């Protein structure tokens, strides 16, 4: 995997054209390697995003439950005070 600056450990120079005007095999290999690394990073980010989303959903539900319990306690306290 690449470093934080995208360093692949091998220089990728500007694409040079072969004699037939197309990219040489080395350039395709370098591009494929970079695309694989990008794909891997995106997969990792997606996993982290899914995990964070699940945790936030849990927190939201916990907060809703706490709020309902607090409102019930306030309602019971108000009922006791009026008695």
Report what the structure shows.
It comes from Chinchilla lanigera. Residues 1-23 are annotated as: Disordered. This is Bublin coiled coil protein. This protein is an all-alpha fold. The chain is 70% helix and 0% strand. The chain contains 1 helix and no strands. The protein has one helix at residues 25-82. The relative contact order is 0.08. The mean pLDDT is 84.
Which labels suit this protein?
83 residues
SSE blueprint:
Layout: H1 25-82
Brief sketch in words of this structure:
Helices cover 70% and strands 0% of the residues.
Percent strand equals: under 5%
Mean pLDDT: 84
Q: If helices are DSSP runs of H or I spanning 4 or more residues, what is the number of helices?
A: 1
Specify the overall morphology.
rod-shaped
- Proportion of helical residues: 55-70%
Q: Round the Cα radius of gyration to an integer and report it.
A: 28 Å
- Tell me the span between the first and last alpha carbons: 70 Å
Number of strands: 0
Largest sheet: none
Q: SS-based structural class?
A: mainly alpha
H-E string: H
- Quaternary state, please? single chain
Low-confidence stretches: none
């Amino acid at each position: 995997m690449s470093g934080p600056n995208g360093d692949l450990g091998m220089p990728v120079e500007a694409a040079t054209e072969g004699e037939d005007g197309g990219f040489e095999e080395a350039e395709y290999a370098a591009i494929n390697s970079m695309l694989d690394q990008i794909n891997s990073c995106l997969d990792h980010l997606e996993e982290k995003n899914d995990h964070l989303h699940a945790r936030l959903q849990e927190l939201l539900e916990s907060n809703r439950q706490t709020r309902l319990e607090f409102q019930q306690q306030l309602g019971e306290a108000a009922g006791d005070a009026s008695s």
